[in-house]
Each structure stands twice: as structure tokens, then as C-alpha cells.
Design brief:
Elements (H helix, E strand, L loop, with lengths): L1 H16 L14 H20 L2 H24 L2 H22 L4 H24 L4 H21 L2 H9 L7 E6 L3 E6 H18 L1 H20 L13 H19 L5 H7 L9
Antiparallel strand pairs: 1-2
Helix pairs in contact: 1-5, 1-8, 1-9, 2-6, 2-7, 3-4, 3-5, 4-5, 5-8, 6-10, 8-9, 8-10, 9-10
């Protein structure tokens, strides 16, 4: 089921990309300075999750998730009252299920995976539609590969963070129970990079580059989920240690094969958006 959710997330991110335009904050085009800020946040947030009281962490997760749901669904529904109804309903349902059945229940996994799926589609499209370049994507992926090895294998930061957040609503992992006590999961950050990289390379080098990146990313995730030997017998595996270099290789190959990457304007002229939003 984790693979099914991963496929659905990446496929919906691809379909969303040229059909709906996310309302972007007035911050300009993403550049290397923004990538540096992202990396700083990625390093600092786990420490905040461990240091803050659980009620504060739960509140921040709720606010962040609600915001992501809102701006992802907004261009699809467009009617403000309907957007609030749908997003508020999802938030309320997950909160009720967590309270009633706990965050280790199958019911929680279903609703949390759905909420995260929509959120990942939104954040991936926000980055890609904000003009993230293939160069910047490669820098981010390479840095995260190094960080993931340190946080997961050299320290217990990843395990400690996920263990603490695992019992809260909107836990940042696509997960599914196997048996009575075991779970298989993939982190939100890993799936965001797997979803955004095909979009950025599609914008930069064309539909073929994006489609091939999408296919290889899915293949890698499937291998990691179904070939336990790749994890070296460890309970947690830093997905970015393989996904990061794969994204870098794609970026370098398509830069060599296709030449300079297209601007966002050139991409929009080549692939006009389909007017599918509701009136």
C-alpha cells in the first residue's frame, strides 16, 4: 500500500502540474538562496520537534497541513466556502480518528496517507511552478543525500523524530501496518523530492525528461520497499542516499543531452495550461 500511495502521489503531482496554477506568495523565483534556506529549515525542524511540547508540535503540524491542503485544493474548487469545508473536514476527520482509534490504527493510516498525498502534490507543484531550476534541484538533492546519511545512520535524529511524531495527527510519513506491530513507511521529504524532480526536469528539458525521471524514481522506491537487502538489514534507511544521486544524474544527463534548460516562460509556451479548473 505504501508503494500504491507513492505511485498515486507522483502521478497526481504530474497531472496537476499543467492543469492548475497554485497561488504563489510574492517571493520571486526560487534560487540558490532559497535552497539554502530550505536546507537550514530541514536541519532545524527535527530539533524543534524534539524540544517543543507535544501540544505545540501537534498544533504546528495541524496549521502547516491545513495550509498545504488549502492552497493545493484552492485552484481546483475555487469557491472559498467549499475549500474551507473540504480542508476543514479532512482536518477534523483525522483529528477525530486519532482521538478515537490512535495513530497506530489502520483507520489513521488511511486518512493520514490521503492528507499527506494532497499536501505533497501541493508543495511539489509550488516549488516547480515557482521556477525551481534543474541546477537548484540537483544541489538540494545532493545536500539532502549527505544530510540523510548523517541524520539516519550517523545519529538517531531521524528515528527519534519519527518515534515522537508517530503518535500525533498528521505524522509526516506515508505508512501502512503489516501484521499487528510492524509498519512500512516512507518519509514525506523523500516523496516530495521524488514528486518534484520530474516536474522540474519536465519544465527544464521537456516531457520526455520528466517522464523518464518519474519512472526511475518510482522504480527506485519500489526496489527499496520490496528488496530488504538494499537497506543492509537496518530498520531505517536514508532514501535520499540513492534518490539524491539519481536526481543529480538525471539533471546532468538532460543538461548534456538537451542543452540549456528552458525558462518557465518557454515551458509555458511549449505546453499551454489546460483550463480544467471549476468556474
Amino acid at each position: 500500500m505504501v508503494l500504491v500511495h507513492s505511485i498515486a502521489t507522483m502521478a497526481l503531482g504530474w497531472l496537476y502540474f499543467r492543469r492548475y496554477a497554485i497561488a504563489r506568495p510574492p517571493i520571486g523565483v526560487l534560487n540558490l538562496v532559497d535552497i539554502a534556506c530550505m536546507l537550514a529549515a530541514i536541519v532545524l525542524v527535527p530539533y524543534l520537534d524534539l524540544l517543543l511540547p507535544l501540544w505545540a508540535v501537534a498544533g504546528l503540524l495541524t496549521l502547516a497541513t491545513w495550509s498545504l491542503l488549502y492552497f493545493t485544493i484552492e485552484p481546483i474548487l475555487r469557491r472559498r466556502w467549499l475549500i474551507w469545508l473540504v480542508t476543514g473536514g479532512l482536518i477534523a476527520i483525522e483529528g477525530a480518528i486519532t482521538w478515537s482509534f490512535g495513530a497506530m490504527s489502520g483507520s489513521f493510516a488511511v486518512i493520514n496517507n490521503l492528507v499527506l498525498l494532497v499536501s505533497i502534490v501541493g508543495i511539489a507543484n509550488l516549488w516547480a511552478q515557482s521556477g525551481m531550476r534543474a541546477r537548484d534541484l540537483a544541489v538540494l538533492a545532493a545536500a539532502l543525500a549527505v544530510y540523510d546519511v548523517w541524520a539516519t545512520w550517523q545519529t538517531t535524529l531521524t528515528d527519534d523524530t519519527l518515534r515522537r511524531l508517530g503518535e500525533l495527527p498528521f505524522a509526516p510519513m506515508i505508512a501502512w501496518p503489516i501484521g499487528s506491530t510492524a509498519w512500512v513507511s516512507i518519509g514525506v521529504g523523500d516523496l516530495v523530492l521524488a514528486t518534484v524532480s520530474p516536474l522540474v526536469l519536465r519544465k527544464a528539458f521537456g516531457r520526455t525528461a520528466g517522464a523518464i525521471t518519474l519512472t526511475t524514481n518510482l522504480g527506485l522506491i519500489a526496489l527499496l520497499l520490496f528488496v530488504p537487502a538494499l537497506s543492509g538489514g537496518r530498520e531505517s534507511f536514508p532514501v535520499m542516499v540513492l534518490l539524491g544521486p539519481l536526481i543529480v544524474l538525471h539533471s546532468l544527463y538532460w543538461r548534456w543531452r538537451a542543452g540549456p534548460e528552458r525558462t518557465t516562460w518557454q515551458y509555458q509556451q511549449a505546453e499551454p495550461r489546460r483550463p480544467t479548473a471549476l468556474a
